[in-house]
Design a protein that fits this description.
By secondary structure, the chain is of the alpha/beta class. The termini are far apart. It binds 6-O-phosphono-beta-D-fructofuranose (F6P). This is Glucose-6-phosphate isomerase. Belongs to the GPI family. It comes from Rhododendron griersonianum.
């Protein structure tokens, strides 16, 4: 079945020799309103100065309805549109169907100058331009899969040395040459990956998508500062903590959640009588180029920790001083959310027995395809075109990602960061307030059919869908018919096709990405496809896709809360050391902290500490904050809280 379908796909492409024959091109452009209200609202003039902003998107719902009905009345027209626009990457076995997004040929033509500007920007970026102007950084994740593109010999050698070091370290761990310190006879059986955001989501997605049923090392993640979540992961490891390789991933090396995860894990090691790191200088270690550092030669491995971080970060220095097993670099020019194909994603993948060379090969082939400047032949550009059309270039509709394959469950979560952290920006590159964004959510089909597809079909029309279709249901030789002529996978296929049709018949647009199988190659290609689509889309809407200033605000505020908590504790300590003890009202605490404006936060701090057995006694009712009087159970004369 799969092979005949793939043959059919090839046939489609062969039947498509003439570009620009979309049935929608027949719609009279004079009937389009000059410019959408949404575009007006967000001052898109600034987006690309040389390009006119009066795009001809038919905002007129009646007109859109007419187009749809026209296509419905004549399914052959829809079929022609499907064939005309179908993108195929033969070598990757990847297809992109954009026929159920209603852009017109006129719209495509009007977008053309913007696309050419985006392609030029992408070319400059690949040549090493400072593509992240706010942070003065190059953006080089494309070099990771084609080191020849890197703008200097030094960068090339760093990329290649790191890749080789990842491969040989993983091979040595998997074959048992590198052993856990407390069981020199044994092998590492588990990975505990500590990291958050871009330092977790890629590895999580890839583990779920590609790890074999019995991987050489099984992986677990700590990706939060939730103590109960951390306890759960450690409890699940149980005695196998002794044979667990702890990989701490943080580009900055100073992310609090990750630091906390590490401290919690180190405590668990101590409590289990294990040495996380023996704090020795490892002799016979070697430097490969400037940074990739492995305790290669020692027959007695002293640590179970591996750090992936920027050189000289706090984490790097800790790992170096404590003599961790290995340190791998995260480069300044690779952003967290585009780091899956750096050591961040490759090391955990290789340790799970996933073919990382194939992942890189898939990404590299996809990058190549995305370098063409012909929009209809460029899959990333086609995605960006659809996103722009569907969301008016201002994020007016959400992107629902629905892979019909359990192993791709985490793709939407991975894309959520890639797209939303990149596109969700307050200002454009010219400093205009634009509040850009593109919301991404989704889990998997057909499961979601029994959850929220009802609303997608019939309810508020604020989204477009991306279906991810995988042609191969099961490995060869394992399928069977659960009723005559029908397999379990046929049902999944039917659900996808049925949902796509049902949504379209109610004017809900969708894109379909099809791959033959979920393999390291196709996963690498999908990662590269979306990384590039995000880059192109960001150019279309004139924003910096590579910084995340908004996240800093939350981090700063969290730091301020913890600083306030220390002041509260100091004030309470002083009052509790008096004789007699002086219980304080919240107003008094706030006053003595010189933070009367923070009284609500002080109430929350006290309520949180009281709920966690923190030697703090709060009298009164939490429900009526004014009644509360608070003091510490004991006076700590030596305690310094600030
Ligand atoms: O790898 P780091 O520096 O720990 O950062 C983790 C994540 O935090 C962010 O900086 C902000 O959430 C992400 O961009 C990044 O992936």
């Amino acid at each position: 079945m799969a092979s005949s379908l793939s043959g059919l796909y090839s046939a489609f492409k062969l039947q498509n020799p003439t570009p620009n024959k979309s049935p929608l091109a027949r719609v009279d452009s004079a009937s389009f309103p000059a410019r959408s209200k949404l575009l007006d609202r967000f001052s898109v003039q600034s987006v690309a100065k040389e390009i006119p902003a009066n795009l001809s998107k038919p905002k007129n719902e009646t007109l859109k309805e007419e187009i749809r009905k026209g296509l419905e009345k004549d399914p052959r027209e829809l079929w022609r549109r499907y064939v005309d626009w179908l993108y195929q990457h033969r070598e990757l076995g990847l297809y992109l169907d954009v026929s159920r997004v209603g852009f017109t040929d006129e719209f495509v033509a009007e977008m053309e100058p913007r696309f050419q500007a985006a392609f030029r920007a992408m070319e400059k970026l690949e040549k090493g331009a400072i593509a992240n102007p706010d942070e003065g950084r190059m953006v080089g994740h494309y070099w990771l899969r084609n080191s020849g593109l890197a703008p200097s010999k030094y960068l090339r050698s760093q990329i290649e040395a790191t890749f080789d070091a990842v491969c040989s370290f993983a091979a040595d761990v998997v074959c048992g040459k590198i052993k856990p310190p407390s069981s020199p006879e044994g092998r590492f059986t588990h990975i505990l990956s500590v990291g958050i955001g871009g330092s977790a989501l890629g590895p999580q997605f890839v583990a779920e998508a590609l790890a074999p049923d019995n991987p050489p090392l099984k992986i677990r993640f700590i990706d939060n500062t939730d103590p109960a979540g951390i306890d759960h992961q450690i409890a699940q490891l149980g005695p196998e903590l002794a044979s667990t390789l702890v990989i701490v991933i943080s580009k900055s090396g100073g992310t609090p959640e990750t630091r906390n995860g590490l401290l919690e894990v180190q405590k668990a090691f101590r409590e289990a009588g294990l040495d996380f790191a023996k704090q020795v200088l490892i002799s016979g270690s070697c430097f490969c180029f400037c940074f990739v550092f492995l305790a290669l030669q020692s027959s007695e491995y002293k640590s179970q920790g591996v750090a992936i971080t920027q050189e000289n970060s706090l984490l790097d220095n800790t790992a170096r001083i404590e003599g961790w097993l290995a340190r791998f670099p995260m480069f300044d020019w690779v952003g967290g959310r585009t780091s899956e194909l750096s050591s961040v994603g490759l090391l955990p993948a290789a340790l799970q027995g996933i073919d990382i060379k194939e992942m890189i090969a898939g990404a590299s082939l996809m990058d190549e395809a995305n370098r063409t400047t012909v929009v209809r032949n460029n899959p990333a550009a086609l995605l960006a075109l659809c996103w722009y059309w569907a969301s008016d270039g201002v994020g007016s509709k959400d992107m629902v990602v629905l892979p019909y394959k359990d192993s791709l469950l985490l793709f939407s979560r991975y894309l959520q960061q890639l797209v939303m952290e990149s596109i969700g920006k307050e200002f454009d590159l010219d400093g205009n307030r634009v509040n850009q964004g593109l919301t991404v959510y989704g889990n998997k089909g057909s499961t979601d059919q029994h959850a929220y597809i009802q609303q997608l079909r019939d309810g508020v029309h604020n989204f477009f869908v991306t279906f991810i279709e995988v042609l191969r249901d099961r490995p060869p030789g394992h399928d069977w018919e659960l009723e005559p002529g029908v397999t379990c996978g046929d049902y999944l296929f039917g659900m996808l096709q049925g949902t796509r049709s049902a949504l379209y018949s109610n004017d809900r647009e969708s894109i379909t990405v099809t791959v033959q199988e979920v393999t390291p190659r196709s996963v690498g290609a999908m990662i590269a496809l979306y990384e590039r689509a995000v880059g192109i889309y960001a150019s279309l809407v004139n924003i910096n896709a590579y910084h995340q200033p908004g996240v800093e605000a939350g981090k700063k505020a969290a730091g301020e809360v913890l600083a306030l908590q220390k002041r509260v504790l100091q004030v309470l300590n002083e009052a509790s050391c008096k004789d007699p003890v002086e219980p304080l009202t919240l107003d008094e605490v706030a006053e003595r902290c010189h933070a009367p404006e923070d009284i609500e936060m002080i109430y929350k701090i006290i309520a949180h500490m009281a709920a966690n057995d923190r030697a703090l006694i709060a009298e009164g009712s939490c429900g009526s904050p004014r009644s509360i009087k608070v003091f510490l159970g004991e006076c700590n004369l030596d305690e310094m809280y600030v």
